[in-house]
């Protein structure tokens, strides 16, 4: 089994990306971040997902992005609620965290060199979150090119591949793939503004898109909602 680094937020998409990596025969090393996110409950979900999927190594890196702010997820601005789908596709939402995926992938790149992995998996999606610039195929291609110029492993003949298996899928397709692979979605946490008891709000963009995906395949979302 070839080692691979899997960026695991604890959400639905990253749980499916992890399951896909395992189904393709990779030995996953999970990487999560405590970056000052208001929905830090997702880290508990990440721990549960790792245990459920039999991942032997899970690293949680502390980074305080609240020192910069600039996002509803790392600051005090309210998380948008009850937005219609057409509004979600207009512009870059306030839930965008500046340079987050660039930062996360850079850490994943360093981790990959240490564990001698030539593969990184990230569950970005360009359909449901088209407003996020760091979820686009162009960004992934540019980062991959940079990574293969910047690392000892690549320069010495072991180029890196950044896998984005979900990037062109709808949320319904992602959920169905996860169900096919046995992902327990009750363990995942997608909400941007969960209640103190970890119940999902059901009204933020992430909850709205998640619930829509489950409806489209005729299944109930097992996650607990407020």
- Named CATH architecture: 3-Layer(aba) Sandwich
Shape by Cα distribution? globular
Full CATH superfamily name: HUPs
Strands in their spatial order, largest beta sheet: 3-2-1-4-5
Number of domains: 1
Fraction of residues in H or I helices:
25-40%
Q: Can you tell me the CATH topology?
A: Rossmann fold
The strand count comes to: 5
| CATH class descriptor | Alpha Beta
Largest sheet: 5 strands, parallel
Q: Report strand %.
A: 5-15%
Q: Structural class, from helix and strand content?
A: alpha/beta
The mean pLDDT is: 95
Q: What is the oligomeric state here?
A: single chain
Number of helices: 8
Regions with pLDDT < 50 over 5+ consecutive residues? none
Outline the secondary-structure elements.
Elements lengths: L1 E6 L4 H12 L2 E9 L6 H12 L4 E6 L22 H4 L11 H15 L4 E3 L15 H14 L1 H4 L5 E3 L7 H10 L24 H12 L10
Parallel strand pairs: 1-2, 1-4, 2-3, 4-5
Helix pairs in contact: 1-7, 7-8
């Amino acid at each position: 089994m070839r080692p691979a680094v899997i960026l695991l937020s604890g959400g639905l998409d990253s749980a499916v990306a992890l399951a896909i990596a395992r189904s393709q025969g990779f030995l996953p090393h999970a990487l999560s971040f405590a970056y000052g996110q208001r929905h830090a409950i997702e880290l508990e979900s990440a721990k549960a997902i790792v245990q459920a999927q039999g991942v032997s190594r899970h690293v949680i890196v502390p980074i305080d992005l609240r020192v910069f702010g600039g996002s509803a997820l790392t600051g005090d601005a309210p998380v948008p609620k009850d937005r219609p789908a057409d509004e979600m596709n207009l512009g870059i939402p306030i839930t965008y965290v500046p340079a987050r995926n660039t930062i996360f992938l850079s850490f994943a790149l360093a981790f990959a060199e240490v564990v001698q992995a030539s593969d990184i998996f990230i569950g970005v999606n360009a359909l449901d979150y088209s407003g996020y610039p760091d979820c686009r195929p162009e960004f992934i291609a540019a980062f991959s090119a940079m990574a293969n110029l910047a690392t000892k492993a690549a320069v010495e003949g072991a180029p890196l591949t950044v896998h984005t298996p979900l990037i062109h899928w709808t949320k319904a397709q992602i959920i169905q793939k996860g169900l096919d692979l046995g992902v327990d979605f009750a363990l995942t946490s997608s909400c941007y503004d969960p209640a103190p008891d970890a119940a999902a709000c059901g009204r933020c963009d992430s909850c709205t898109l998640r619930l829509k995906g489950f409806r489209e395949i005729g299944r109930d979302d097992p996650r607990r909602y407020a």
